[in-house]
């Protein structure tokens, strides 16, 4: 038999799912590893999907998505993000991750380099590798508030650099880029003639600062990627979207045919209801995440493990370096000894060494108990090191 394709074998296992698979074997486990809202999808969204199914709205749709949803997304971008966009610039995808993959396909030729956060959701790096590009990590450090180091970014530019991906609010850091940082990113891209891929899937989950879209300052070169999974508790509905300059949008829409043909029709109707219906559910979930963030920080401060305060998304990184800088080993040991599942920091890049990611998307009592166990685990091993 002739060999299979070689590139997929270069991809490492998805680190978060490695821990998830182990955790589901432990019936006593507190799950703090999963980046998924623990809220149900709001009723009015579910009812819109039921109505669509009952009335026969379950056929193929246009490659770019139904006109009603594209217009609803464009209106949201105008109202919430302050962007002057049209529905023709919108493409609907089965999840934001598909939007990232198709965007990379539209922009990157084999050998092109893409600057990626050294702490980010690993699927973006997978997309670049699968499509023949070269991922080039740029550092995000706790001491800098997990904001880009622009001096370091300048050093990473080569004639092959084609694009940069940014993610604010950030996964796994919870960092939110302020307007000054976003403007600097836009200027950096314009100066080096780079495409800017902006992953904004957590844009509605911000606590202390407003979300700022890079497309406000570099609309001619920014591809915004977002979706409904996090803000509306719709992870399994698989609705994401991209908003691009017209010439890029045309290519992304063209690529829909060989990649997915069209997005689920019933889920698109649900998405229309989400975007055009009452928004109280988004505010209620955001307030719950803020309260959990504050609770988590109180626990970490009591144990002397608070290193920074996340400003968005529903994650925080916990310093477990007193046990090991190997975050995979630390996550496995925490699961084994405390029955708490966390994501290894290095699953999101080398910058995650010495950290584990905790998801705030769980009940407050479980979050507090899980963090207490993690802190006691770190303290016990710190004492062992000092006395060993």
Helices and strands in order:
Elements: H1 15-23, E1 30-31, H2 43-54, H3 67-80, E2 90-93, H4 96-107, E3 113-117, H5 123-130, E4 134-138, H6 150-156, E5 161-167, H7 179-192, E6 195-199, E7 222-227, E8 240-243, H8 246-259, H9 265-276, H10 280-302, E9 315-319, H11 327-338, E10 340-341, E11 343-344, E12 355-359, H12 364-387
Parallel strand pairs: 1-10, 3-4, 3-5, 5-6, 6-7
Antiparallel strand pairs: 2-8, 7-8, 9-12, 11-12
Helix pairs in contact: 1-11, 2-9, 3-9, 4-5, 4-8, 10-12
Summarize the structure.
Helices cover 41% and strands 13% of the residues. Helix 4 (96-107) packs parallel to helix 5. The mean pLDDT is 95.
Written account of the structure:
There is one protein chain. By secondary structure, the chain is an alpha/beta fold. It has helices at residues 15-23, 43-54, 67-80, 96-107, 123-130, 150-156, 179-192, 246-259, 265-276, 280-302, 327-338, 364-387; strands at residues 30-31, 90-93, 113-117, 134-138, 161-167, 195-199, 222-227, 240-243, 315-319, 340-341, 343-344, 355-359. It folds into two domains: 7-40 and 280-381, Alpha-Beta Complex (Aspartate Aminotransferase, domain 1); 55-276, Aspartate Aminotransferase, domain 2, CATH 3.40.640.10. The model has no long low-confidence stretch (mean pLDDT 95).
């Amino acid at each position: 038999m002739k060999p299979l394709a070689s590139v997929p074998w270069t991809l490492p296992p998805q680190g978060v799912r490695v821990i998830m698979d182990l955790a589901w074997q432990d019936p006593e486990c507190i799950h703090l590893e999963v980046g998924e809202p623990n809220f149900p999808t709001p009723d009015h969204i579910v009812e819109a999907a039921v109505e669509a199914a009952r009335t026969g709205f379950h056929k193929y749709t246009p490659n770019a998505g139904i006109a009603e949803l594209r217009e609803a997304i464009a209106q949201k971008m105008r109202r919430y993000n302050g962007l002057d966009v049209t529905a023709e610039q919108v493409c609907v995808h089965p999840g934001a991750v598909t939007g990232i993959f198709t965007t990379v396909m539209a922009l990157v030729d084999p050998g092109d380099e893409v600057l990626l956060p050294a702490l980010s959701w690993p699927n973006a790096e997978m997309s670049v590798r699968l499509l023949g590009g070269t991922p080039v990590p740029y550092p995000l450090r706790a001491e800098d508030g997990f904001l880009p180091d622009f001096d370091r970014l300048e050093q990473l530019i080569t004639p092959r650099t084609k694009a940069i991906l940014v993610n604010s609010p950030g996964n796994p850091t919870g960092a939110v880029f302020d307007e000054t940082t976003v403007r600097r990113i836009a200027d950096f891209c314009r100066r080096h003639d780079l495409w800017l891929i902006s992953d904004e899937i957590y844009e509605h989950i911000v606590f202390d600062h407003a979300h700022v879209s890079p497309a406000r300052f570099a609309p001619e070169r920014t591809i915004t990627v977002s979706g409904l999974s996090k803000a509306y508790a719709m992870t399994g509905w698989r609705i994401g979207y991209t908003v691009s300059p017209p010439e890029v949008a045309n290519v992304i829409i063209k690529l829909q045919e060989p990649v997915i043909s069209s997005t689920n029709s019933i889920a698109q109707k649900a998405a229309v209801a989400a975007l055009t219906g009452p928004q109280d559910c988004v505010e209620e979930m955001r307030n719950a995440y803020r309260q959990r963030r504050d609770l988590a920080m109180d626990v970490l401060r009591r144990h002397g493990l608070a290193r920074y305060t996340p400003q968005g998304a529903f994650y925080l990184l916990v310093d477990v370096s007193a046990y090991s800088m190997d975050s995979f080993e630390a996550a496995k040991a925490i699961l084994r000894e405390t029955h708490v599942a966390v994501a290894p920091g290095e699953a999101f890049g080398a910058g995650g060494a010495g950290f584990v990611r905790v998801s705030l998307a769980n009940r407050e009592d479980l979050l507090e108990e899980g963090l207490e166990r993690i802190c006691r685990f770190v303290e016990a091993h710190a004492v062992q090191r000092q006395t060993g």
